[in-house]
Amino acid sequence: MNRLYDKFNEVVRVVLPFILFVLFFNFTLVPLGSELLGAFLISSGFIVLGLTFFLLGVDLGITPMGNQIGPLLGKTKRIWSLVLFAFIIGFFISYAEPALLVMSIQVEELSLGLLSASVLNVSVSVGIGVMVVVGFIRIFYNLPLYKILFVSYGLVLLIALSASPQMLAIAFDASGVTTGVLAVPFLLSLSMGVTNRRKDSKASEKDSFGMIAIASVGAILSVLILNIVFKPGFVSIQSLPELETGNNLLYRFSDIFFPVGQESVQSILPLFVIFLIITLLNRLFRTKLFKRISIGFIYALLGLFLFLVGINASFIEVGRLLGSELILKFSAPWVILIGFALGVVTILAEPAVAILTQQIEEVTSGYISRKAVNASLAIGVGFAIALSVLRIVVVDIQLWHYLLPGYLFALALSLFVPKLFVGIAFDAGGVATGPMISSIVMAFVHGIANTQSGADILIDGFGMVALVALMPVITIQILGLIFKLKMQRSVLNDA
After folding, report:
1. Using an 8 Å Cβ cutoff, are 163 and 170 in contact?
2. Residues 6 or more apart whose Cβ sits within 8 Å of residue 304
3. Which of 364, 388, 356 lies closest to 466, judged by CA?
4. Is residue 175 included in any domain, yes or no?
5. How many CB atoms lie within 10 A of CB 282?
6. Distance CA 317, CA 245 (A)
7. Labelling 39: which of 133, 150, 176, 426 has CA 20 to 30 A away?
8. Is 0.90 topped by the overall pTM?
9. In Å, how far are 233, 372, 379, 469 from 483, measured between CA atoms?
10. 160, part of any domain
11. Whose CA is closest to 386, among 291, 487, 467?
């Protein structure tokens, strides 16, 4: 019970600033109306409870499962079994990710069904599975992370040259949303379990990070390849389709219970089946641990259901309304500044960020503080949202104008920054783009694109998550560079 209470307090602390942000605009500049405001407040309760139960489920079930399986993989000498298991884990951990579920629904809606949510989910999950395999092979053969990232992003650049602008934005956004509250703790615990089997502690420390970064590339590649294979004929979307919401609170929530429940079960069940199969084949989990992990999965399922209900009942609609109204009432610089503030508030509400920063403190024995990482993330994500708004209001700015120089700069930094910071930075880029970013902030950007003259929602409305994933990679590596210079200066002073 104490753990549940602690999780509840943790979630309230991070989500409350975001709720107050929306309420401030409701009572000043963008009144939501009594019905939508009521739905938002109830949805906020669903989201707080949902994230509380989900994170508790992750602690009780998902992370211990990864901690137990990691050493088992570390002992295997059969590369084919490692490859098969890593692919299966990568696929289902991505398929169950809440942020990917939220984004794929929006893609299907805004593409008028040309790119279905199921096709996008499966394609992205295949890409993640393949790159998780690459991540484990890297650990086993002690391959440098920066070399894999150079090759991976070089391949992305080559394929992206022939991609449609719509699929380019969706591909990079998919990369961000696949590494959220479920994938991050599981893949981190899995990779740490494998690296802890190694005798080289320094190599183990560096290899503990980087798995999220490698996995994220798989989502980009899979969507770009999907574009080549299917070539969906997107049409220009100048206005958002009407959301199907009722005129009363009861309809809003009751109408989505069954489909959201179905999505939740489909997401969590395959991972639980994998757990059962491993238990039967290896007898890896003792009776007490088996019960604890099983209870964790139940909590995770309940939490995912409550969270998705809250998101679908009102959060997306609130985000779109805020974006649409603010761009009408304010000049572009003010909306860009509001976007920056929204980014700062939202990143602090991403539960995966807390998980990563805790792992960083543990692995580095506290010499990289959570406050420093959080500050770097907040600044980076704030600038990412601001740049996304700028791209909409200035029609000539295209997504690749940001991504190409941004990733080239990030890869160049990786040559000079301590290698531990490289893994942390690219992992942070993945965890920054969780369910809060993929729901209300994405909807906020869609609302601006919907109102701004000349903007195409599929082209300009997507791509925001890609920038959110990119900016922390740069800011945390800069933090690493500062740390390196301070260490060098300290050594010189001691000499």
Report:
1. no
2. 50, 54, 96, 98, 264, 267, 268
3. 388
4. yes
5. 11
6. 9
7. 176
8. no
9. 48, 11, 17, 22
10. yes
11. 467
